[in-house]
Amino acid sequence: xxxxxxxxxxxxxxxxxxxxxxxxxxxxxVGARYALIGPNGAGKTTLINLVTGMLAPNAGQIFLGSEDxxxxxxxxxxxxxxxxxxxxxxxxxxxxxxEAVTLAVCxxxxxxxxxxxxxxxxxxxxxxxxxxxxxxxxxDVAYQPTRELPYxxxxxxxxxxxxxxxxxxxxLDEPAAGVPQEESGDIFEVVxxxxxxxxxxxxxxxxxxxxxxxSHIIVLVGGAVFTAGSPAEIxxxxxxxxxxxxxxxxx
Amino acid sequence: xxxxxxxxTPQAYLKSLSRWRxxxxxxxxxxxxxxxxxxxxxxxxxxxxxxxxxxxxxxxxLGYAGVVSLGHAAFFGVGAYAxxxxxxxxxxxxxxxxxxxxxxxxxxxxxxxxxxxxxRHLTLIMITLGLGLLAHEVxxxxxxxxxxxxxxxGIEIWPVFGLFKFDLYGTTAYGYSLALLFIFFLASRRLLNxxxxxxxxxIRENWVRMPAIGAERQAHIRKAYTIAAFMAGVAGAALAQxxxxxSLESIGFQRSADVLVMLVLxxxxxxxxxxxxxxxxxxxxxxxxxxxPQYWYFWIGVLLVTVVMVLPNGILGGLSKLTARWRKP
Lengths: 251, 329
Hints:
The structure holds two protein chains of two kinds. Chain A is an alpha/beta fold. Chain A is built from nine helices and ten strands.
């Protein structure tokens, strides 16, 4: 049995009378590649917001490894190795990729509050940031302001920023959202090339991508886990087909 | 400007961002000109230098961290009153008085930063405005200590280092103010090129992303706010010492609004914006009030509206756009 990287127990949340997460129990083994799928409004992003602490649950617990992180602030969860990306670009438009990723590296190294040192003396941090950018094929645009980068490059920078926190668990909210289909493969190639120690959960709508890159699939409907299993099991599940074709009523 | 080429190593690139440019050296040499060219305007030059230091302190929180304040004069005023009262009650030695005033302003900044760091946008503007008004009324009410609306009189400051006496012509005053401006400019320049400076720009550029990269954004803001308050305190204390008086106006809303106007005129988030803005504002005030003493704010209003309409990033923002166009054939 492999160790569990991230788990939730009875995670629930409602906005007023609308339940957006219902009794969600997850268990992600170390190194797993999980896809989180479900129709629009199923609560996929809400689940990521709950796990990362951007929303507070009404009930339930979240564990990173064996530690209960339910009460921790988002940045404290990040420091313990839980990172995320955003469906809508949440970048630093006026910084260039090198500055942005160096900032994230400095935060992780605990040197971001040093106001008396020129940043250029932190060679190792800059080196590390540049390596992450090179790995994500952003080396050639490292000095260009983020707001001037092509959209696909900005999606990669989303991932680069998350990687700079050295996560053990990475939650990717539609990493290829808005990217033309022929380019979305590039982004998932990068995702697939990430270290095997890293536990991944990604939201994705394109089923070709999901079946190609996920080792497990969780189907979320109406804020609850509808079913979960291997890609083959999910593909054969007639219930999932119904949900996606919209013949079943859901929230 | 240093040419950025993709062949530069990332370390060399980041280092090049903090390199001294020729225009900067010319700027600082030019600050010495008043000694020779306008010896009869040294008192004004001294006030400009201190207004510039005050605007620079606002730039750290507003221009870099994106924290808008309408009550920054609270720290300027506390520095001024504390330094003035220190000289009357303890002794007239200027540097200890300066340190006392600035420390008190810094402590007040630290205390209020716990409120400031939690809020954004309009709420934050209203809170800083409210705290500013509060400080003003406390100074007004504590007549026995501050002199209230009569101002704090009878300040006597000893010569700087026991050598340079504050004279009528303002030679020592300008030297003192300019030295302080330069020292705190160097410190700010280092701060803004530091990892912490990068974190402040991160907060300004995306408040939401910061915790997602593991940043304690509120702790960063508290630290920046405390530093800015300390610097504002230095400017206030030095004004009290060089003019040997403190008026209630030095802690008032008008002072907070003026410093914001100076920074926006010059260009926020550009290090030199406050310096350029303060110079233009103070010279314009001197000239306009010579023409029509009652109505000179009319012209400041015209200037402000014109600049923000035509140059959204201030005068320096406009200039850098112009030079960028000129360089690219």
